Each structure stands twice: as structure tokens, then as C-alpha cells.
Amino acid sequence: MNSIKIHKKQPTFLELLNTISGWRDTENIFLFNCNVMASPVQLVLLNVETMHYLQVMWSLRSDLNENQRDFIMCSIASWVQSVYESKDGISSSLAVHIFTVNISKLLSQVARTYEASADLPEEAISEWNEFFSQTVYNLLLHIYVQLAESLMSSDVSRSQEHLLAWMGEAVTCCPKDQLMSLQLESTGAESSPTCQIETILHHFCPMLLSRVYCIQIAAYHILNKIINDLHSLESSKVSTVSLTEDICVKKLENLNTVDSEPNLAAEATAAKYPHFEDDDENGRQPNEILMETLMKSWKGIETHLDPSESIDKQFAPSHCTLGYLLTWKLQLHFLRTASSELRADYLRYLETLNLITVLLEDIFSLIPETLVSAYQCRKDELSIANIAFKKKLSCTSAPSSDKLLQNVACLMFEEALETIPATVRQWWRKQDRAFASFIDNFTKLFISPVLCNKEIQNILSLDMNLENIVIRARSTSREIVAVYTMDDVSIEMVIALPDNYPLGSISVRSEQRKGISNSISKKWLLQLNLFLQHQNGNIMDGLRLWKRNIDKKFEGVEECTICCCVVHGTNFQLPKIQCKICRKKFHSICLYKWFNESQNSSCPLCRTLF
Ligand SMILES: [Zn+2]
Ligand SMILES: [Zn+2]
């Protein structure tokens, strides 16, 4: 009775798009390149509805023809131009607010598909990158930065937060190339930025410490895109010791958690044998602006703490703690993308200041023990690891604040284990039994399955093997097999990852060897084990180091008499110091340690004084 009549000539969804795009020429409907505040509300709402419709159409993008796609792109660009022309009303006018939120939604949906190059023809992608995205992001980021910076120290209303969240979602899709060509005003910071990367750092690092969740997350995502480029910036600088170190030292003096005795001993040794101190004994400071932000975030937390109490971040406002964790997250990314040698230098700097120990303690002050028991009875390892905490932090969906910090803390521990496994392992071994066992269970349950899988996939996806080494992976038994061949010599090493990888010991055994004596094969196994345990990198980094060691040995470089290696396991140096009497060679770091332990500066072999 109530059957709906379907006209045969009713347009399809796709045909409707052609009709709408035709309005451009005949009707005065689209609010393109104009001030939205001057337009009637009905028209604003019609435009917003059209944005919704285009969002739906974009999900069918593989069915769109070139003209239709073009219409959507041009509309986005013209609407964003309108946001720019209406920017004075962005905080006060409801029309501008609604308009901006919805164009941001459409833009982020479209930009994400371009980012993933999903279902789009090649020419559409290059057109987007070369023409549209530049205009669109230049305008939108300008407005965003201005708005976010104007709200740095004030509280924001719910509606401002809503606006910032969606704008944040859109600007974080900005491709890195566009970010690098973005024209932002100088920040008026004390040290004037010398290049684009520094300008970006000066604008977005302070936003990490904003009081508004979505501003912090957006700043994190933007900065995360340029972290790789910081390395070229750093290499052009001379390593300098700056103010931040004083702040750290002062801060650490106040902490009673710091065990100061080893430092005193080291200082005494350094004073006694100054000529054996390495030039880079204290390491190298990571990017200065990032370090300053870290110190500021720390100060932000500290002002909320009772100095007599232990450092428990849960009493500080959550935005302070989040800012601190996000800054560290960037710092870890910075370390992860550095070369092995530089990573070791940066780590030495951070460890001298005890910063990493403090970070690891802070992380676990945010992870409740109940998290482990809640999941412990469940099977299917990898999926548990993937659902226990969210991997992607989004501007628009903030979990409740205690869950948020817990989530970020879990993520941070995973990243710490991936980036600096040897340092974390060392710290873990110093903890008391109950705490160490909690960390162990946490790692087994949530992190090891993911990291083992990553290691195996990393090996499987390697299209090029190291010279003289063939590497395979056995994913079911979590084993990595490396066969080293040189002339008539060959040895097969099997690396088995423990179920709490990378916390526990990695076992290395040899199943086959040819032309190598038992004692040499034992020594090589021991060395590989040493490199896998002591360097802050993945299995592949460890294998590379081991191979370099053997290559150097074949080249005739003499090994260090103390650690029996040619290339040192943590600072990658060759044995440089030679005893004048027995002619044996040593790594300076090994000899320094020997002097320190024996309280004596004589050769470990012939006892001659150095
Ligand atoms: Zn040595
Ligand atoms: Zn000697």
C-alpha cells in the first residue's frame, strides 16, 4: 500500500554529483573564496551539507571520473580559502565554527587517502601533491598555529576544543614536503631560528606543553614528521654543553632517588687519570630545543609536587604528564633514527643525567598492575598485544584522562624496548624481584609478541643481505639464522628470541660449521651474544656489528685484550691504546673501566704503569 514509487529517471548518487558541480556556474550557492560571516546561515548550512555529501562521495572515489574528483579538490581549496578569509570570526562566530569543523573533516578524509595512495590514479596523486595540498595546508596551518598559540596559557571552552580537535586532525595530515615549505612567522624566541626545521620546532615544541589535549597531540604528530631531518641539522652543529645540563644537574641533586656514589667514584677516577677520559665521555646532547622542551615539561610537573614526596606523576595535572611523555616519545624517535654510533653518544649524555632511569620509573608509575592480570588468562598473544593499548593517538578521540596516560605509558615502554633495549635491560636487572617480575610479565604479554614479529618481518623483508652473511628467519620458533661464509670458512649461527624479548637473554648456538676450530666458533658465538645483548638496536644491528668485528679481524686489526672484541660493543670504537711494554692493545673505555675497578693505572697483563 505504501510502496515507494521509484522513478526510472531518478539520478544515481554519482549523477547527483554532476548536478551539484553544475551549480557552480548557474547558482550562487557555494561559499567559495569569501567571508563566511557575511553569508546567510541557511547558505552556510547548505555548504556544510554539501561537504558531508562529498565525504560520502569520496568513500566511493574509485568510481569517480577525473572531472568529479577535480570538482571535489577545487571545492576543498576554495572552502579553505573562505576559512582563511573568515579567520577573524573563528572563535566568535558559530557559522565560521561549523564551516571550519566540517571542511576539516572532509579535508582529513581526503588527505588520508592521498597519504596512503589508496584507490587513486597516479596523476590524481601528483596533482594533489603539487597543486592542492600546498595551498590548502599553507592557509589552514597558518590559522591553526595562530589559534593554538593564542590559547597557550588560557583555558578553552568545549566548542573551542571541538574546533581545535578537527582542525588538528586536518593539519596533521599535512605531507612533510609541504611542512618544510610552509611559511610561518618568526616566533620571537630568544635564539632566532636558522632554518625551516628550527622554525617548526620553535612553533610546535611549546604546543606539546599546552593545556589542551588535541593541541598537544597535533603538535606531536607534526613534529614526528620532521624528526628524521633533525639529524642533518645536528650534524652541522658543534656539540655544545648548554643551560639544560645545569637544570638537569640541579634537578637531579634534589632527587633522593639518585644514587650518587658511582658518580663520585667516576669523578674521582676522571680526576686521577684525566688523560684517559674520552673526548666524548659525557656523550653528545640531542637536539637542544627538544631537550629544553623536556626540561620545561619536567618543571611543569615538578611545580605540582611536594619536594619531599617520591616522584609520582599522577598528582600532576594530566596535560603536564602528557607533555612530558610526548616529548620523550619524540626523543625516542630521534634516537631510533640516529646512526648506531650517534645513538650511543646521545644515550651516554642522557644516562649521565640519569634521565632514562627516571623516565622508566615514571612510565611504570602510570601502568597499574591490574593491567597484566586482566589479560593474563587469555591466549592468542599477538592480538592481545594489539588491543591492550591504542597505537595511534588521535586529536579527535581522547580517552578518559587516566586511561590516556596509561595508554601513552604502555606505548612508551614498547618504544623504549625497541629503541634502547640494552639500556632498559640493564635498568630492569637492577629492580627488586616483585617489580622486575611485573615488568617481565607485562613485556611477555603485550610487547614481546609485537617486537619479535617485527624482528622476523624485518629479516624476511630484507632484499639485500650483508656481504658474506645469509640471514633467514623461522617465525614459528622465533629464530633467526645467520650463515657467515668467508673463503673455505663457514659457520651457522642460530639466534633464539626469548619469550620476554628483548628483556631476557638471547641465546645463540651454532648448528653447523666448516673450517673453523671449536675454540674460534665458541669465541664468535660469545661475541655475537655480547653484541646482541649490549647494543641499543635490533637483531640486524647486532649482526651488522658482529660482522664488522669479524671483517676487521680478517683485515688484521688486533682485538682488545680485555673484552676480546675488535669493535667495541657499545661505542663501536677500535682498540686505540697500546701498552708500551707488552704491546697489547685496549679499547680506551675498557682500560678506563679496568683502572676504575682496580684503583690502579697499570696494564692488566704486564702490570706496567701507564
Ligand atoms: Zn675492549
Ligand atoms: Zn702491558
Automatic annotation (TrEMBL):
Chief place where the protein resides: cytoplasm
One GO cellular component term: RQC complex
Keywords, ordered alphabetically: Acyltransferase, Cytoplasm, Metal-binding, Repeat, Transferase, Ubl conjugation pathway, Zinc, Zinc-finger
A Gene Ontology biological process term: ribosome-associated ubiquitin-dependent protein catabolic process
Class of this enzyme: transferase
Domain RING-type stretches: 560-607
Recorded metabolic or biological pathway in which this protein acts: Protein modification; protein ubiquitination
The organism's place on the tree of life at top rank: Eukaryota
PROSITE patterns: ZF_RING_2
Family annotation (Pfam families): LTN1_E3_ligase_5th (PF24618), LTN1_E3_ligase_6th (PF22999), UBC_like (PF23009)
Location relative to the cell: Cytoplasm, Cytosol
Gene3D superfamilies reported for this sequence: Zinc/RING finger domain, C3HC4 (zinc finger) (3.30.40.10)
Catalytic activity: S-ubiquitinyl-[E2 ubiquitin-conjugating enzyme]-L-cysteine + [acceptor protein]-L-lysine = [E2 ubiquitin-conjugating enzyme]-L-cysteine + N(6)-ubiquitinyl-[acceptor protein]-L-lysine
GO molecular function, one term: ribosomal large subunit binding
EC number: 2.3.2.27
Subunit and partners: Component of the ribosome quality control complex (RQC).
Functional summary from the UniProt entry: E3 ubiquitin-protein ligase. Component of the ribosome quality control complex (RQC), a ribosome-associated complex that mediates ubiquitination and extraction of incompletely synthesized nascent chains for proteasomal degradation.
Record-stated family: Belongs to the LTN1 family.
Protein name according to UniProt: E3 ubiquitin-protein ligase listerin
Native source organism of the sequence: Acanthosepion pharaonis
Classification lineage: Eukaryota, Metazoa, Spiralia, Lophotrochozoa, Mollusca
